[in-house]
Amino acid sequence: MLADFITSKSRIQLIGTFLLHPYEMFHVRELVRRTGDEINAVRRELSFLEKKGILNREPRANRVYYSLNKNYPFYFDLLKIGSKTIGLGAELIKNRVKLGKIKYAMFSGKFVRRMEKTPEDVDFLIVGTVVLPEVALLVRNEEGRLGSEINYTVMTEEEFDFRKKRNDPFIKTILAGSRIMLLGDEESMLA
């Protein structure tokens, strides 16, 4: 979790807010509402994160807006960490025992970056012997939090291996795109 290596509770909440909405800009009062922190704590952490290059600061009229800096050298690493420690990724990792035997679990890069997608795009793939109602519950909760539908696919190891060996176009499309592995070894999944 983010708390494993970031000691400031305010910083954790701010970074979490930005990672959930990587393309949005927030003004200070909005961040205070979202984090529940005091305004001085939020301002202090925003100043720190701006100095480190993690956030961009943009004055507009009488407000100052902040957003994630896409040019920060560890921007994509932050997105990967966020996908595993916040929201659906965190819930999947936390509940993996009651979800069944998961060999691989991954998000698409488009999903993590909150990019435009087509109806055919798969946001989330799980391979293994899983308890479908448990997975569906986690996905529904995340859909409610995000306010958008998550397109996900669950398949057994046998089905995944069979379709991969047959060069199934559906599997090829998923594996050809960018991904964030939540569980399992990416190299063995691609082999």
How is this fold's topology laid out?
Elements: H1 9-20, E1 26-27, H2 28-35, H3 39-51, E2 55-60, E3 63-68, H4 75-85, H5 87-94, H6 96-99, E4 100-108, H7 109-113, E5 124-130, H8 132-146, E6 152-155, H9 157-165, H10 169-176, E7 179-183, H11 186-190
Parallel strand pairs: 5-6
Antiparallel strand pairs: 1-3, 2-3, 4-5, 4-7
Fold and architecture overview:
With 191 residues, the chain is of the alpha+beta class. Helix content is 51%, strand content 20%. α4 packs across α5 (87-94) and α5 (87-94) packs antiparallel against α8 (132-146). The longest helix has 15 residues, at 132-146.
Keywords:
51% helix; 191 residues; 7 strands; three-stranded antiparallel sheet; alpha+beta
Give a quick precis of the structure.
The chain is α+β, with helices and mostly antiparallel strands.
User: Low-confidence runs (pLDDT<50, min 5 residues)?
Assistant: none
Net shape: elongated
- Count of DSSP H/I helices: 11
Structural class: alpha+beta
Main β-sheet: number of strands, strand sense, barrel status?
4 strands, mixed
Give the strand line-up of the largest sheet.
Answer: 6-5-4-7
Quote the distance from N terminus to C terminus.
29 Å
**Count of DSSP strands:** 7
What is the beta-strand fraction?
15-25%
